[in-house]
Amino acid sequence: MVCFVQFKVEPNDLERFLATAREVMEATQPEQGRIVYRYGADIVDPTLFHITEVWESREALEAHTRTAHFAKAMSILPALAIIDPVETWTGPLVYERVQVRTD
What we know:
29% strand, Alpha-Beta Plaits
């Protein structure tokens, strides 16, 4: 299962957002069923952040949403940012690591 989430952060809340995001990202890494969990800053808008999540299954994602660190983040983040609707894709996903040539 793949999820994309966007956060539009108020400029005055940026440091608190980043601290919370780091805490959640670090706590999420060892979770069972997590394949990818990354935050990224938008290259055009410094107050826009993207989360890319890839989970082995819907059950793994749902288990993530029941963790203490997720609950803590959800008690903080809505006050700091506008959270766009989460986009998810399910079904067969094909993973292939491709080397990009630069020559």
